[in-house]
Amino acid sequence: MDQSPSRMSLLEQQLQQMIRLSKKIITELEKDKPSTEILNNTFNLRQHHINKMEKLIDGDESSLSAGEKKKLQLLFDEFDHLSERIREGLEETLDQYRDKVADATKRRKAEDGYQILNKPDISYF
Hints:
The protein is an all-alpha fold.
């Protein structure tokens, strides 16, 4: 007798992993200083599970019951919602970093201007 997991079980496991990793990304993005290393590793692992999911989806859908399809649709909808939250979180984080870079640039220009005023050019003496 074949003891390998059913296709439904494998699809469900992949979706649950994708959801878990998406939640981890959102949690990291919500931190004051998100770790790019953690985000990169988590995104890579998430993509790995997405690729595995794509391979499983290529199979025949008729092997799934209506209830299984509904359960998978609910899981996929949750994953889709989390993906949208990730996109929004990334945009917000990017905007915050843009603001910080703009502020730092303004501050640097102000400091350079101040230093020029404090050090008069006496090279002509």
